[in-house]
TrEMBL record:
NCBIfam families the UniProt entry points to: CofD_related
Protein name as it appears in the record: Putative gluconeogenesis factor
Family per record: Belongs to the gluconeogenesis factor family.
Keywords: Cytoplasm
Gene3D superfamilies registered for this protein in UniProt: CofD-like domains (3.40.50.10680)
Organism listed in the record: Arthrobacter hankyongi
Record's function text: Required for morphogenesis under gluconeogenic growth conditions.
Main location: cytoplasm
Amino acid sequence: MALLTGSLPRIPLPQPSGAGGRFKEPPSVVALGGGHGLSASLAALRLLTSELTAVVTVADDGGSSGRLRRELGVLPPGDLRMALAALCDDTEWGRTWRDVMQHRFKSAEPTEASLDNHALGNLLIVTLWELLGNPVAGLQWAGALLGARGQVLPMATVPLTIEGDVFTETADGRLRTETITGQSKLAAAGKNCRVHDIRLIPADAPACGEALEAIELSDWVILGPGSWYTSVLPHLMLPQLREALCRTTARRVLTMNLATDTKETSGMTAADHLDVVRRYAPEMRFDFVLADPGAVEDRDRFRQAAAALGARVVFGRVGTLGGAPVHDPLRLAAAYHDIFGGNEEHADA
């Protein structure tokens, strides 16, 4: 576990009554995802617990991460870097190192061989990997340097590729099927496209052993929010990881996005998102589905889709006040706080 420093107060959780209470204080939580969605979840969860593990997708093939992946044959560090930055403490030390990790170089005359657009955090992580020869150890050292409230782990020990079949609407209204390879291209499929099926390459890649152990020992597992096909679903498609998620005694929460009709999920409703989860992992069961009421079009249909996953719906206002589809860390933390503490006043409201 990375070192815990700083003075940011944690929100105390209600204690279970009786000697047989299930969860300790603080609870052990594993959050899975990637990119901005996972960062939002971690920014909220670090207010509730220091026993926090982020399990991060390793399929990015664009930008700085893609270049390092191609040139050095390493795991793409970008989503891992963002998770570490999200766990930085809210102190001068933490904020400074967060900004250092996220800093990008801007070259006057960029070339493919220059530092242009490389994030310094990506270079730091890859440096630690090369020095230590171990991705997990490198991330632990990076977390210790940042004073991160928790640890960050890759979902797999080898880089993954996401491949998807996409329906594209032609000018005359017909549907054409094409295969798109790569997370960055799939995530930008576009409004005239709809992702139909995705695959991981290699399909049987080994999961990170430390991630499997963290899931087994956790009290709560949080999946989402995030890009549904490229950050959320991959965790359910890696055989060893899916088996661990199904086998764990932890309670499971699926956190919905604030916007459903994205480039990656064009034309999909909130209920469709749940149906896709069930299609890719029919044996997977959740205890709760957390959703902002403004992002659910048909509540009855949504409840039915959640029930098919074994879950109860918890509606909560978890978005920022500005109207942009961005999770507010304090509001999201309050929603998780209520769920963890057994306060189901707003469940299925």
